[in-house]
Amino acid sequence: MQEPESSEPAFEPEATRRDADVTESSRANRGWWDRNADEYQIEHGTFLGDDRFVWGPEGLDEVEAELLGPPEELKGKSVLEIGAGAAQCARWLTAQGARPVALDLSHRQLQHALRIGGSFPLVCADAGALPFADASFDLACSAYGALPFVADPVLVLKEVRRVLRPGGRFVFSVTHPIRWAFPDEPGPEGLTVSSSYFDRTPYVEQDDQGRAVYVEHHRTLGDRVRDIVAGGFRLVDLVEPEWPAWNSSEWGGWSPLRGNLIPGTAVFVCERD
What we know:
Oligomer: single chain
CATH architecture: 3-Layer(aba) Sandwich
Mean pLDDT: 95
Number of helices: 7
CATH topology: Rossmann fold
Strand content: 15-25%
Radius of gyration: 18 Å
CATH class: Alpha Beta
Order of helices and strands: EHHEHEHEEHEEEHEHE
Shape: globular
Low-confidence stretches: 1-9
Structural class: alpha/beta
């Protein structure tokens, strides 16, 4: 695996709230994940494991959740993992007898997937322009991949629907929308509302010339539901994982303190008719 050209940007980005379109968001987040993939895998690799399927920082495991269906029914199914990172979920799917494809915007993240190993294809591409033929997959999944970072989630949902076969299921997790009203802090300071839940202005980190280097987009819970319907899916379940007693770890703004009081993750289970 090649060494990254630079593990850290040469500037301290400025955090702001402003508009960021599809092109700017994609460019910024590809660069951010390429620069920060190494640190991310070092910090969270143990929690994620090499071959676990975890839906979020709470630790909800697909082994127990079965949101894609019973494990015994995954055998032989073609599955697209979107925003795969180091492809931990795809590795778990392979162990169940599924045939996954791991897709990510970041080349560096996929280099970590190569480092860990696996017999499934790795694809570097944008979720808004999936390089697959119509009706190529039985299932699709995304654990905190793509959807929080795209300016046009309906475009992504329509692309996922296009590559799914009729009756296919798409399950994705994102930061729970309520978290946008609170500071992104794991301690007591993260328990007081500091901004409007209804403010959809993206969170942007930008360089000294005003170019975005990281973008995250906010959608309310109602927005997410309407996006799913506009994308051609039927919402069949919405899971808000509770913080388990065994999980004592902090992950950014996620912590036992906050997790016991407010939801941190929303998992949407969608089906294509």
